[in-house]
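Need residues for this backbone.
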């Protein structure tokens, strides 16, 4: 390709000015002509290069678009999967919350029943203890009253009875016992 360009410039430089065509180095005078020549040379000799360059660029752009589209599809699938997992986790969390509320309610009812039962048992035990202590106190008071009554009766009988009266009471009691016991009983 460089050989072609060199040949073209060589031919153009050998042409004389008298022939009407030549290479003018004054940019301001021949700018359009020079540009047309350069573009013509570039289009004819560099066309394949530019076409292949543009095709490579087009393929790279298409490949980038396809890659981006694939990544978008993968991201969309992952997003959908994550949303599904989130919804599933949300449902499970709601179920766990409902179950925990139900369990807490059942435990609360169970504990309240246990508290009621324990309270009833404690009240029953309290009442039984009070009744036992009352019976014990009443029994103790009875024993003391009986002991005091016997002691007092004994003291009174000692002070009132003399020997003669004692013999008489003893005979009377023996007589009463004798009537109660019949000869067949002995």
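Answer:
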């Amino acid at each position: 390709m460089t050989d072609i360009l060199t040949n073209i410039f060589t031919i153009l430089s050998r042409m004389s000015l008298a022939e009407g065509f030549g290479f003018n180095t004054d940019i301001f005078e021949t700018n359009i002509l020079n540009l047309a020549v350069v573009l013509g040379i570039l289009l004819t000799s560099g066309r394949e290069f530019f076409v292949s360059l543009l095709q490579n660029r087009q393929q790279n752009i298409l490949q980038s678009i396809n890659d981006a589209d694939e990544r978008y599809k993968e991201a969309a699938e992952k997003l959908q999967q994550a949303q599904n997992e989130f919804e599933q986790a949300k449902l499970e969390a709601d179920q766990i919350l409902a179950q925990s509320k139900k369990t807490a309610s059942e435990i609360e009812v169970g504990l309240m029943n246990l508290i009621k039962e324990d309270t009833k048992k404690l009240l029953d035990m309290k009442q039984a203890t009070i009744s036992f202590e009352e019976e014990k106190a009443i029994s103790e008071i009875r024993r003391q009253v009986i002991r005091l009554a016997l002691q007092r009766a004994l003291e009174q009988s000692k002070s009132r009875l003399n020997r003669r009266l004692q013999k008489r009471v003893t005979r009377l009691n023996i007589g009463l016992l004798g009537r109660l016991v019949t000869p067949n009983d002995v």
